[in-house]
């Protein structure tokens, strides 16, 4: 046999004819033979090219043919039969080629004839496939030529005439195809000036432009290649329209100039450093001296420090953070302190931003510096206020408790005591009311000065606010020694104070609690000394009283208030009053604070200062807080229906409420229940309430902030804050405490504190409101300092809901007529 290389797949059978066929086929040296139980079990991917299938004519013959047609359409097949198959039988199995081998008529010659015929079928099929592929390529090339977005032309290299052109040439050149064909190529390429822009230098050739029928010149990039067309060589010319690229180039140049202008006029310093930490650009804020800025090119911070006579710490710190930015490939932020030869101190917040330069495959660094000197000084001032009393310079409650906790922790002796003294100035309110707050403040400062003189280094004296003071003494030998020190304080504070030309006599009432007998925690000892102080007041003032079990009677009073308060919720004795907030810019009501009031059926109006602490301690504050929120939302909805002007309503929040796991969700549910816009609700909390549970406070207010609910920090600057936590709260409003406002027009320190708080708030993007404004002078000073929202008796005291609504309507209406 003279067969070429083919692969034969034969279906197995127990007929002798199968064995004979297998033997004869195996003798064909150029063939590969594979047998298989059933053709229907062949895996399509396992069959080689140039395959011929031999299978038996049985009941599955039609299924076998269908299988081959679907999976091996390029392979012929031969039907095998132990019996002679007539043309009718072959037709019944739908055999298109009638190739078959029957045992009665079989011979090696027949086998050779059938296999040769099958081989020719394979060759014809392959040629047909190859031809189809060539046709497809031709069609693709024709489509590429016609549909290309580039201008394509075929040019006769001898005559330089255009043989053919694509659709894009017709569209762009504005000529019909028959107008283009036959013209010399140079007809469409008039001379143009060479683009000398460095960015494209070398990419364009002279006269690399095309002229349209209307005379418009189109800048192009071109390429020329020789290739055969219909047996002749032709030039394939490709022109790419680079109008948009040149326009983009011009835009890049304009943008570059624009951004350089912006960078040169920013308030922040900007510089760019290369991978060697050498400067490649710096704006005037980075270095105001133009000559030094020019000198700085390709210099490092080491050179800059030497030039400006800065200490080594300057460049060592910068280098450390640059190396971190390079290694981690992340933005690095740090603060730096720069002190020049004139001792001028500047605080900078600097960022190093790594960027990858795709042109040089090198890393660069953008140095971005913001002057935060004013903010840092404000923070230092606020930090001082966090631990010290601004008026007297004494420790505040936070620092006192911290010292007390440390003393209790370290006190190991069983022979000495820790003494907690808590006192206030008798009739101090009368002094303030009769002599004025200025003299009252002077008195507090003079009291603090006398206390400092009698304290040892290990003692702690603090002002808790108002006229309340606390003293911690360690290692007190006994109760008698504690009493002697108490009497000493009473004596020095009973001496007259010479204030503004007159002598002022004062007395104090003091309570004393001793550890470990009267308590083992600072909270317990402060509470007991506070109870003892009230006992001293009951005994006529101007004396001291040790804590004793008799003071439990005071607790009974507290229990009475607590029980009455529980009934007050059930009996609907609680009422909401509202104090308006006024904008000094629009002279309109811009908000209101909801304030709870209690009208006892027997005692009448109970002061909040008396029942709120009891509610806090007993946990009733949570129920009260829920009621306040629901009542405030209900009234807010009513005001909306009355078309009362829209403004945020402040609701005070207790630290106990913040501690509840689902409190923020309850706030959300209540607002949704009454259909209130979340932006019209403002939650007001004190710094101390945040510090009771800072982590939960942060979590709760992050959730509520996402809903659009505002957060206000009340009594800001009174010394209870931890700035690290306050920053995380992400507050919207800071309320300046009334203690800084009450003598604002007379006290320079108060003005400085208010200014620092306002500046800090503005730098953080926060709104500011001042409470306790009682006269026009305070209002005008606050307005000049940048505080444009005020609250206080200058405009209105807290009002019941009907009176408040009337006030808002009349006030806003009168403001419009002015």
Features of this protein?
818 residues; alpha/beta; eight-stranded mixed β-barrel; five-stranded parallel beta sheet; 32 strands
What does this 3D model show about the protein?
This protein is an alpha/beta fold and 818 residues long. It contains 27 helices and 32 strands. The strands form six sheets. An eight-stranded mixed barrel has the order 23-24-26-27-28-29-30-31, surrounded by six helices. The protein has a five-stranded parallel sheet with strand order 2-1-3-4-5, sandwiched between helices. A hairpin with a 3-residue loop joins strand 24 (589-600) and strand 25 (604-606). Helix 19 packs parallel to helix 21 (663-674). The longest helix has 40 residues, at 108-147. The N and C termini lie far apart (119 Å). 29% of the residues are buried. This is Bifunctional diguanylate cyclase/phosphodiesterase.
């Amino acid at each position: 046999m003279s067969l070429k290389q083919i692969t034969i797949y034969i279906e197995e059978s127990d007929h002798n004819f199968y064995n004979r066929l297998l033997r004869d086929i195996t003798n064909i040296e150029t063939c590969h033979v594979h047998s298989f139980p059933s053709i229907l079990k062949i895996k399509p991917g396992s069959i080689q090219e140039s395959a011929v299938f031999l299978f038996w004519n049985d009941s599955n013959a039609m299924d076998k043919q269908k299988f081959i047609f679907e999976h091996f359409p390029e392979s012929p097949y031969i039907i095998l039969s132990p019996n002679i198959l007539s043309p009718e039988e072959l037709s019944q199995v739908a055999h298109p080629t009638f190739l078959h081998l029957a045992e009665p008529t079989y011979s090696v010659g027949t086998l050779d004839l059938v296999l040769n015929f099958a081989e020719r079928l394979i060759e014809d099929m392959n040629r047909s496939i190859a031809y189809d592929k060539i046709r497809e390529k031709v069609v693709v090339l024709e489509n590429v030529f016609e549909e290309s977005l580039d201008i394509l032309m075929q040019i006769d290299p001898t005559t330089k005439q255009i043989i053919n052109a694509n659709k894009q040439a017709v569209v762009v050149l504005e000529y019909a195809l028959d107008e283009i064909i036959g013209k010399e190529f140079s007809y469409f390429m008039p001379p143009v000036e060479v683009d000398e822009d460095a960015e494209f230098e070398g990419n364009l050739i002279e006269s690399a432009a095309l002229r349209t029928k209307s005379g418009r010149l189109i800048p192009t990039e071109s390429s020329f290649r020789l290739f055969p067309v219909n047996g002749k060589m032709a030039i394939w010319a490709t022109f790419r329209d680079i109008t948009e690229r040149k326009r983009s180039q011009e835009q890049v140049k304009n943008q570059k100039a624009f951004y350089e202008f912006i960078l040169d006029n920013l308030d922040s310093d900007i510089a760019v450093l290369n991978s060697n930490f050498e400067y490649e650009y710096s704006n005037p804020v980075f270095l105001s001296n133009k000559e030094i800025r020019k000198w700085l090119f390709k210099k490092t911070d080491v050179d800059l420090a030497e030039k400006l006579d800065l200490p080594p710490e300057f460049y060592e710190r910068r280098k450390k953070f640059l190396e971190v930015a390079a290694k981690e490939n992340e933005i690095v932020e740090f603060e730096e302190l720069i002190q020049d030869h004139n001792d001028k101190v500047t605080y900078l917040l600097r960022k190093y931003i790594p960027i990858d330069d795709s042109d040089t495959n090198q890393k660069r660094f953008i140095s971005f510096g913001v002057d935060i000197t004013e903010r840092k000084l404000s923070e230092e001032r606020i930090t001082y206020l966090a631990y010290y009393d601004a008026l007297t310079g004494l420790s505040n409650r936070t620092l006192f408790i911290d010292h007390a906790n440390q003393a209790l922790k370290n006190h190991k002796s069983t022979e000495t005591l820790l003494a907690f003294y808590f006192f206030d100035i008798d009739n101090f309110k009368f002094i303030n009311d009769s002599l004025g707050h200025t003299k009252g403040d002077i008195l507090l400062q003079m009291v603090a000065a006398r206390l400092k003189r009698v304290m040892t280094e290990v003692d702690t004296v603090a002002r808790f606010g108002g006229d309340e003071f606390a003293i911690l003494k360690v290692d007190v030998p006994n109760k008698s020694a504690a009493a002697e020190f108490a009497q000493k304080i009473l004596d020095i504070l009973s001496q007259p104070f010479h204030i503004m030309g007159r002598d002022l006599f004062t007395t104090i009432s003091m309570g004393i609690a001793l550890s470990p007998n009267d308590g083992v925690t600072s909270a317990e000892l402060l509470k007991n000394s506070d109870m003892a102080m009230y006992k001293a007041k009951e005994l006529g003032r101007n004396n001291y009283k040790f804590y004793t079990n008799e003071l439990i009677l005071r607790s009974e009073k507290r229990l009475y208030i607590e029980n009455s308060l529980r009934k007050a919720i059930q009996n609907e004795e609680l009422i909401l009053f509202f104090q308006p907030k006024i904008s000094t810019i629009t002279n309109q009501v811009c908000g209101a604070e909801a304030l709870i009031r209690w009208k006892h059926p027997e005692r009448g109006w109970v002061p909040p200062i008396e029942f709120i602490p009891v509610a806090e301690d007993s946990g009733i504050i949570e129920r009260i807080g829920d009621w306040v929120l629901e009542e405030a939302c209900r009234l807010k909805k009513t005001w909306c229906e009355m078309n009362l002007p829209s403004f945020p309503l402040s609701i005070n929040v207790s630290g106990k409420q913040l501690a509840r796991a689902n409190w923020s969700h309850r706030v959300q549910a209540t607002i949704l229940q009454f259909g209130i816009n979340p932006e019209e609700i403002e939650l007001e909390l004190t710094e101390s309430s945040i510090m009771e549970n800072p982590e939960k406070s942060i979590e709760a207010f992050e959730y509520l902030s996402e809903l659009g609910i505002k957060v206000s920090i009340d009594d800001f600057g009174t010394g209870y804050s931890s700035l690290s936590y306050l920053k995380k709260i992400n507050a919207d409003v800071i309320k300046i405490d009334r203690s800084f406002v009450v003598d604002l027009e007379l006290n320079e320190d108060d003005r400085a504190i208010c200014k620092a708080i306002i500046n800090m708030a503005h730098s953080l993007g926060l709104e500011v409101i001042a409470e306790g404004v009682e006269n026009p002078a305070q209002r005008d000073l606050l307005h000049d300092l940048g505080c444009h929202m005020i609250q206080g008796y200058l405009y209105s005291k807290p009002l019941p809901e009907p009176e408040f609504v009337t006030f808002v309507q009349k006030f806003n209406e009168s403001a419009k007529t002015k």
